[in-house]
Design goal:
- The radius of gyration is 19 Å and the shape is globular.
- It has eight helices and 17 strands.
- By secondary structure, the protein is of the alpha+beta class.
- Bound molecules: ligand PPE.
- Ligand PPE binds next to helix 6 and strand 14.
- The site of ligand PPE has 16 residues, from helix 6 and strand 14.
Amino acid sequence: MVTPSDKIWMDGTFVDWNEASVHVLTHSLHYGLGAFEGIRCYEGTAASAIFRLHEHVERLFESAHIIMMNVPYSQKDVAEAIVETVRINKLKSCYIRPLLYVGHGEMGLYHGNNPVKLAIAAWSWGTYLGEEGLVQGIRAKVSSFTRHHVNVAMTRAKVSGYYVNSILAKCEAKHAGYDEALLLDTEGYVAEGAGENVFLVKNGVLKTTPLTSILEGITRNSILELAREKNIPVSEERFTRDALYVADEAFFTGTAAEVAPVRSIDDRQVGTGKRGPVTTLLQQSFFDIVRGQDPSHAHWLTPV
Ligand code: PPE
């Protein structure tokens, strides 16, 4: 269960957590046209800070642009509303979920005459794949569901409806006793996790899948940047599932999942089956930055 916070921002005003409801004919509820973000705020040594707020807000607006939703706010307004939502709920560390959706009005697929609505909720949310997973690694399974074809879904956009595909994959993996699903693209190459990007390490080179059928993760981008700074060779290239089976290390990245080592894929142990040295280095560096212990990337943090 989500731990309720005090207030949710809805279309410019704060409403009580329990009053934050919508009409049942809300267009997005029927057809899935909506865009959202997942953002984390971390408690730091000095203050709490939101990780890469501006990049998340920018991606939200890009998602809206791709699916032709006109956002009735500026990026600055939305960023301020997000900070205000964390503040008013007095949350030290939390997960923040802005959701742009099409309100009720007309029914039928054409949404252009309906209002575009925005809600921003924030609540305490521990790491997605479990604290233990961050240390011991998680078990992943290649899904029988395929990631969207590039002409089915434009995955640069973080669109609500796309997540039916992720949910089906996630449920299949969970029901089979795994922690997370790994989806392949329509040509059979590795795409991404149900809610994470994927990386492998082989012979000292860090590889991640290119931006064809995946979400351009902000954690992915941060990890690539950190790796380059540490002179770890990086490559964005396609690879197959067996490349993961024989990798030295593998890990998932995402706002909810953070940096989560993968200890096995399809019951094949990855590397030593433990969090590897490159994963450990990048994970530690990520946590030091988001928790304000390493000031080198202070520009990634917006104090609350
Ligand atoms: N791929 C997918 C499909 C995805 O949903 C996410 C985030 C990522 C990659 C990583 O993106 P980023 O968070 O910018 O590094 N998934 C969000 C939703 C998870 C959920 O279950 O809800 C998230 O992590 O917030």
